[in-house]
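Section 3.1 - Work completed
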Amino acid sequence: MKKNNLSFTILKKVITIQFAILFSFVLISCDTDVNELPDPDDTSEITPKITSVDTPDSIWAGISEIVVNGQDFSPVLENNIVYFDGYSTSDASETFAVLLEATSTMLRVKVPYYVSDSVEVKVAVQGVENFNETTFLINIKAAVIEIFGDGDNLPSGITVDNSQNLYFNHNAFGVNEGLKRFSPSGVLENFAAKSGSFYIDLKYGRDGRVYGTRSPTVRAVFANADGGTPSAIAVANSAAKLISLDFDNNYNIWTGGVGGDVYRITEDASDKKPFPFEPEVKSLRFYDGYIYVAAKMDSTEAIYRMQVIDSDNIGAAEVYFDVTANIAPYSVNAITFSSDGKMFLGTDAEGDDPNALIVVNTDGSFNTWYPRVITGPILAFAWDTGDYLYYVRGLVGDTQVQKIMRINMEMPGAPYYGRD
């Protein structure tokens, strides 16, 4: 009987201990905040993964956009960082790399202003220690490159022939060296003897001569043959100072500047006809039956156009684009057109100011083109027979020298009749 009582007592104590342990677990569980429990949907510590990168045919530094596809990105835009070698979207003001759109599986990003044929793309998410493990390489190219010029060799005026030779006025160590020809292979040679001053606008003629206006401006267009000296084609108005010129589809020269007229000069220079136009012409381009001029009148500036009806008649000037209303305080130095009718305005914006090059679409809308990648001011344009647009970039104090630059526009220019 005593033995049975002892067994019962031991069993009772065991049960009591087990119950106490179980009760302790219950208390601990009750004291735990539900917010501290693991969240099965929390991916904040999961390493992001890149599965593919979608790119255009050519990736242009500081310009093109790419799409990074993958997993476990943050849908919160600013929580992602895309790296291109040592450049990242976390320092967009310096690198030009900008994160534009983000989901958990896709990042759309503008690439940095950085050129290399094997740029490694990586993704980091804030709060996650590791990058993606898979390596993806892309080829970033330069859309804008320097062609000619340094602190001692200053180009001005520019035109290009059908063989892609450039022609420009060359000032070396402060001395006017006349017109130079610069081949696609980089050979610089004399073309025409120096004139009394340097050229500010040049056009290549189908007779093989280079036509230009000079600074200080005078009342003449100058024709330059290979190896020759300048031949002046003067207009009658002694108050005229010609600044810009272009050829139309009948190979007439159109020119204007200061003095109250624009002029039509026949190809053989035998006939010169003035047409009243009061604003000061800064740049002139013939396109699709119209003369377009960047011109200034008092404190206002606009792009005007006049229809060429025939060699002896033009239509009334109409405002095509109001420069003062749309892009002030910037002023237009040069105009040109693409083959599909886009008008490009080279402005006086300096350095990497994004307004150096403005595109005006055929519907009148406008925006910056390759902002910050194209440096200004832009003084003159010349579009080659393909997709390259050359321009003269002006001097900016001690920070920027005058150079000829080349832009890959990924589109051809409008027909240029002088070099046909």
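Second construct:
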Amino acid sequence: MDKEKYKRPLRKAKKAFRKHSPLIQSGDTIDYRNIRLISRFISQQGKILPRRARKLTLKQQRLITIAIKQARILSLLPFYNNERLFQMKRTQKPPKNKKKNFKIRKNNKK
């Protein structure tokens, strides 16, 4: 059989659709102490933004995630960014004044 009939047409190479992030400059260090840089990658609720939202490389996203977690542990960044939610969690419930009355039963043995 003729092999030329069964050849597949050449496909174009896929182009990378992600551009490098302009948020991180070449001189910036991704570190837990660089709060100004790290805070750009946190949402209003305090969540870490996904990689596709800020167009980061895999290595940059990993470094930023580690830096954010370290900054949270060292209390440089809050775990919850929403103050109302933070206040709701901090408030304590008022003590209940209800006391249960238990009757003591005596077993009448014959």
